[in-house]
Amino acid sequence: xxxxxxxxxxxxxxxxxxxxxxxxxxxxxxxxxxxxxxxxxxxxxxxxxxxxxxxxxxxxxxxxxxxxxxxxxxxxxxxxxxxxxxxxxxxxxxxxxxxxxxxxxxxxxxxxxxxxxxxxxxxxxxxxxxxxxxxxxxxxxxxxxxxxxxxxxxxxxxxxxxxxxxxxxxxxxxxxxxxxxxxxxxxxxxxxxxxxxxxxxxxxxxxxxxxxxxxxxxxxxxxxxxxxxxxxxxxxxxxxxxxxxxxxxxxxxxxxxxxxxxxxxxxxxxxxxxxxxxxxxxxxxxxxxxxxxxxxxxxxxxxxxxxxxxxxxxxxxxxxxxxxxxxxxxxxxxxxxxxxxxxxxxxxxxxxxxxxxxxxxxxxxxxxxxxxxxxxxxxxxxxxxxxxxxxxxxxxxxxxxxxxxxxxxxxxxxxxxx
Length: 418
Known about the structure:
The protein is an all-alpha fold. 75% of the residues lie in helices and 1% in strands. It is built from 18 helices and two strands. The chain has a two-stranded antiparallel sheet. Helix 1 packs across helix 5. The longest helix has 41 residues, at 2-42.
């Protein structure tokens, strides 16, 4: 008779814990939204979100193409109070049409500050969830204070806070990347393929990462990943064509137009701005070297598993921003898995010293980008980052990645095992 009673008490305790957890999550969401609505009502901005909010509203409510000049002029009028001048950002929709499904719920909110607050809350929750899930993916068990520190870092790091304030959907790309790594580890190939398809709303940011995952899936006979990826992308494309048949051509027009009104978006153009004499050639050399390194690591790690796989994936996310494909430092939050992996290895390797080293490294990664940004900022219609931001964090993370490479790949153990 005692055993059923004990089981009943444990079940009650489990239910109580679940209720408390749900209430805690609701409180956190409420506090985040309250803070965000106070911020959005007193601080203009969120232009990345504004572009797609207006574009989606215009199509859903008026049937106007989100890629049209009419929508672009409406957005420019909201930001500049006039049409964009030569040299200014044209604030045009440049995402695939199926991205409207993401922005659709927010387009029904008439007050932009409220819509932006809800959007920021979603992005913040995505960062928190991604941080916790990445910690689990790399099999790390940090102390509670370190976990909280990582969450705070994840929210206020330069490459996190900037997309949060601007409303950049790249934060959700980080979430899909995290789900891909989780799905690979736990052999949930459907989740991997669908997540890869969803991240194509910003294809230039993840094209190298997607290419690596596809090659790895073929080599390791995980073809279900390819099936779900291609199937989901085709579904999104054809649903979009059914709703708006001409979107592929209009989208491609915007893709080719995009580099013309954006700040430097490759190492070559960034260095050409910083060093007009040799910058362009040096940037092309960096891109070529990044490509060679990636190909070599992909070959060596074609059968990688666990931490080795996360290491190569993280390196692909870092160097993928340097392979001469148009991007922006505002997208560098996708490099966050490299930070979690490196810190995990340091703590595992050096215990107490590793914990202090992690705090120092987090401080360096936090303060250096902010110091460089503040000292090179260009105030225009909004604070414009200098192209120098293309380099500090990737350089630091590449150093960290190759610092831990030996321990992650553990070649001595591999040799003995073989």
